[in-house]
Amino acid sequence: MLSFQGFLQKIFNKEKLPEFKIRYIHGLLFYNSYFDSVYKALGKDTICFIVGGWVRDRLINRKITNKVDIDFIVTTDPFDIVKKLKSLIGGDIFQFEKEKKVATILFSEGDIKYRFDFSYLEIPDIKDFEEREKIIVEKLYEDLLSRDFTINAMAVNFDDTVSLGVSQTLLFDPSNGYEDLNKELIKPVSIENIKKDPVRILRAYRLAQELNFNIDKDFEKWIEKNASILQNSPQERIREEILKIFENDGTAETLKKLIENKIIKSSLKDKNIFEDMKELENLLKNCEN
A single GO BP annotation from the record (predicted)? Predict the structure, then answer.
């Protein structure tokens, strides 16, 4: 595996790269005891980043629950990595697609259930070291900028989370997610990303509920005007997001917002579920009176 720190210093001195927003954070903040096994499974030629919810949650020191989901981005075949990891720690592995895009390993320790997802970062076969590493960082940023919310669009270099001598790591943050995290704000990376996957609207309210954050006001105004884009979204994914809302505190308040903003009405085609939600709406109104 290769370190980015020296390389980034070189390229920053040599030329200006497009909007590389980087912060330094203590690397061991992101450590998990299974990372030592992940390190062995990656191999020396793999560059790996940790992305998404694990980075977000560790930055706010969120309590770790009995469900641990960690997302990795890697530059070699993810399925080869999870196969090696399985030989080290056991568990079950599977792949989402026939192509080498995403591979997952599921395993348990006591009552704690782990899910590690490895996504492939496709890069051209370039021999020049500096050019190759520059492209990797650019591809990483493309990936981060395609995600749902700014607080989920941050990444750290995996190597720095397992090296005892490292005091800080690079936080890759192209959409100012760190600032929004400190503001306790759910803000989309872009409205286009929401349009591509409207179920992210429901996820915004669910995340706000889970983290006790607020939804960006401009985003919420946009939702009020555009909730109808949920109509063509898969009902299975919509139900899944709604069910997750019932798993956390603040369910009534979150459902009230979804009903007030006509999100429930726009998203549910199943008549029985919609009728249940109408009944729930009446119950919420009665509770207010």
Answer: tRNA processing
Extents of the domains making up the chain: 5-178, 185-288
CA–CA dist 244, 86 (Å, integer): 29
CB 43 within 8 A of CB 36: no
What distance in Å separates the CA atoms of residue 221 and residue 101, rounded to the nearest whole number? 35
pTM for the whole structure: 0.84
Residues for the chain: how many in total? 289
Task: Give the separation between CA 152 and CA 219, rounded to whole angstroms.
Answer: 16
Burial of 67 (0-12, 13-18, 19+ CB in 10 A): exposed
Domains 5-178 and 185-288 share a fold: no
pLDDT digits (tens, 9 = 90+) for 187-205: 999 999 999 999 999 999 9
The residue among 199, 52, 198, 37 whose CA lies nearest residue 117 is 52
Q: Find where tokens 């890069």 sit.
A: 123
Residue-wise pLDDT tens digits, 124-179: 776 766 777 888 888 999 999 999 999 999 999 999 898 766 678 889 999 999 99
Report whether CATH 3.30.460.10 matches the domain 5-178: yes
